[in-house]
Write a structure and sequence with these properties.
The structure is a homodimer. In chain A, the strands form 3 sheets. In chain A, strands 2-6-4-5 form a 4-stranded antiparallel sheet. A 3-stranded antiparallel sheet of chain A has the order 1-7-3. In chain A, strands 8-10-9 form a 3-stranded antiparallel sheet. The first copy, chain A, contains 10 helices and 10 strands. The longest helix of chain A has 26 residues. By secondary structure, the first copy, chain A, is α+β, with helices and mostly antiparallel strands. At the A-B interface, strand 5, helix 3, helix 5 and helix 10 of A face helix 3, helix 5 and helix 10 of B. Chain A binds a DNA duplex through helix 8.
DNA sequence: AATTCTCTGTGCGAAGGCGTACATAGGAGG
DNA sequence: CCTCCTATGTACGCCTTCGCACAGAGAATT
């Protein structure tokens, strides 16, 4: 669990040129992010960005009546705080740590300075932002058309891709908040998956036993996002 | 209806500096966009971008089984084809003209060249992209939590903001495709709105009579997006 | 060992949306 | 005028999800 940390464990930081890395790495600060930690609230000026290494962060939207829904999920393939370089400085959503771990923090001004050098960093960040857009779009469609069962599968797979091992630490209550459904709905869907032998869980520990089956039960949304994310990550820089 | 066209009618083009406008405007080509025209299909290399002046374009996602859902809507406040400067070149969604009108087309390489000069154009485009992200996120949440009635209100308001006058040319069938619901659901919701005297429609013509009431009936999603879009548009460029 | 708290399972009725089928109504064209 | 086509209105049963209530079961605390 307390594996060795290095900026290279974040795919964006790992993708920088030698020169950029030399400029940026000295300013990175490793931070430990516990479950539930809020990186920013809606409207907060985002002073820093976070590059996850082994944690997962949810971008969550909370409605006036308290209902919530996950917009997107970010792991070591991305960063938290895109509104800094996108120019808006804030966003209407909230960023919450969904799986504890670590991230490298970089102060906003330093990120912006590097971004506006228009080098690899800019290309990487913009392309990552596009993959985030894809994920959000797919979430919208999935919310509209697919069942809780399917969405649970999608969510498990997205989380699994961002963790080592096959175990998620997550109560059904929290998953329900992410998906924006009732806790009981998650209980029932998870019960069905367990009956099929796809997962096994108890009190906040979910072990995925048959990943292939999970993918088969899932709607197309997971595959679409995964494929597009991979494409954008490995896209040759022109 | 056939009002005078000018690049200035698009808010992004209007926001360029004198110097940038001098470089870009000569390369703009005015095109007429009929209802239903597809600007790009999922995966299409996007050779050009479109700056709408008096048309509305929907970003639509179509599932394998044919079901669809609107991700976002673009009028003269934005442009179609962000994946060009975001670096992905393609997206998994489709862009369809939802309300006929005009747009200025700009070839991809020219847009990229201007974008990578890191001037006003870049700031404007990135900030617009962030407002698009906000809209997509809100759509996801709205799909999850709000009724068809509320979503219809949201959709009408979003469209109204991007048109002159108070009349939409749109069959209930098309609206249903955008919202990703049944046509009958739209019929019923629209019937209720009509009974309240908020709208009046017949055979593809929807007249909004009481906009304030429409806003009152709508979920918070419209206001959130509107406010954020305005904020990002008028944000001083640092 | 007893108690308390958290997490999970289950069982209702209610509501919204879906799929289907069919009925009406306004326009266009012969 | 009549016909055809498209757009809209209505009805009905079904299914999913919701909201609520409560029961068990595991873990932590005392």
């Amino acid at each position: 669990m307390p594996s060795i940390q290095s900026p290279q464990r974040n795919q964006l930081l790992a993708g920088l040129s030698r020169q950029e890395a030399d400029r940026i790495y000295p300013h990175l600060k490793l931070v430990s992010l516990p479950l539930g930690k809020v990186l920013y609230e809606p409207g907060d000026p985002q002073g820093s960005v976070y590059f996850p290494t082994d944690c997962i962060v949810s971008l969550l939207y909370v409605l006036e009546d308290g209902a919530s829904a996950e917009i997107a999920v970010v792991g070591n393939e991305g960063l938290i705080g895109i509104s800094l370089f996108m120019g808006g400085e804030t966003t209407p959503s909230r960023a919450v740590v969904q799986s504890a771990g670590h991230a490298y923090r970089l102060l906003g001004p330093l990120l912006k300075e590097e971004f506006y050098r228009s080098g690899d960093m800019q290309l990487l960040l913009l392309r990552y932002t596009q993959s985030l857009i894809t994920q959000m779009a797919q979430t919208a469609v999935c919310n509209r058309h697919h069942s809780v069962d399917q969405q649970l599968c999608r969510w498990l797979l997205l989380s699994l891709d961002r963790l080592e091992g096959n175990v998620l630490s997550m109560t059904q209550e929290l998953i329900a908040n992410m998906l924006g459904v009732r806790r009981e709905g998650v209980t029932e869907a998870a019960g069905r998956l367990q009956k099929l032998g796809v997962i096994r869980y108890s009190r906040g520990r979910i072990a995925v036993l048959k990943r292939e089956k999970l993918e088969a039960l899932c709607c197309e949304c997971y595959a679409v996002v995964k494929k597009e994310t991979d494409r954008l990550r490995t896209f040759s820089s022109l």
